[in-house]
Amino acid sequence: MKFKLMELLRQNARLTNEQLAARLGITAEEVAQLLSELEASRAIYGYKALINPDAAGEEIVEAIVEVHVSPTRGEGFDGIARRIYRFPEVRSLYLMSGGSDFLLFMEAKSLKEIAKFITEKLATMDGVKETQTHFLLKKYKQDGVPLDGEESLERLPVTP
Predict the structure, then answer these.
(1) Between the CA of residue 143 and those of 21, 34, 109, what are the distances in Å?
(2) Which long-range contacts (CB under 8 A, 24 or more apart) does 112-118 make?
(3) What backbone torsions phi and psi does residue 65 show, to the nearest 5 degrees?
């Protein structure tokens, strides 16, 4: 039941407990109890809205930064990650396999602000060896939601 509830919330976090209960075939009180348990266990971290800054009239520059680090004894990757994710510009931070150690998603009001963050805060941090910055040009899909207004993606026909 918890997995079904989480999937419904993943699709639309604005559903009321009554709407969730109707879809799950349980009471709104049972939904509230399940939500409390999921939040307490951190299976649900939080709820958020997908925002279109262009439609809101806000200029936002988004960047993905590959970060290469040298972890130190006693701190490892987790310590460096904690120092990086505390900056408000950092929206998401992931430890990765492959060529980069971390993948950092950030946003700012201008390219200049992103450059300043990287050159003055990130690149000068102890343990950071190298960064590579990629700027987002256009989003097509975010968190499972097509951003061009389509409700669902049509499956393309397969031809031999």
Answers:
(1) 24, 23, 22
(2) 113/61, 113/89, 114/61, 114/63, 114/89, 117/87, 117/89, 118/65
(3) -120, 125
72 contacts: CB under 8 Å, gap ≥ 6: 79, 126, 127
Radius of gyration of the chain (CA): 20
Q: What share of the chain is helix, strand, coil (3-state, %, to 5)?
A: 35, 20, 45
Instruction: Supply the pTM of this predicted model.
Output: 0.78
> Which of 1.10.10, 1.10.3470, 2.60.40, 3.30.43 would CATH assign to domain 2-40?
1.10.10
User: Of 40-49, 126-135, 147-156, where does the model show the most confidence?
Assistant: 126-135
Which tokens sit at 6?
């989480």
Pick the CATH number of 61-138 from 3.30.70.920, 3.30.930.10, 3.40.50.300, 3.40.309.10: 3.30.70.920
Six token digits for residue 85: 């994710």
What is the CB-side half-sphere exposure of residue 146 using CA atoms within 13 A?
Answer: 7
Q: Give the Cβ contact number of residue 60 at 10 Å.
A: 13
State the chain's maximal CA–CA distance in angstroms.
Answer: 56
The fraction of the chain above a pLDDT of 90, given in percent, is 68
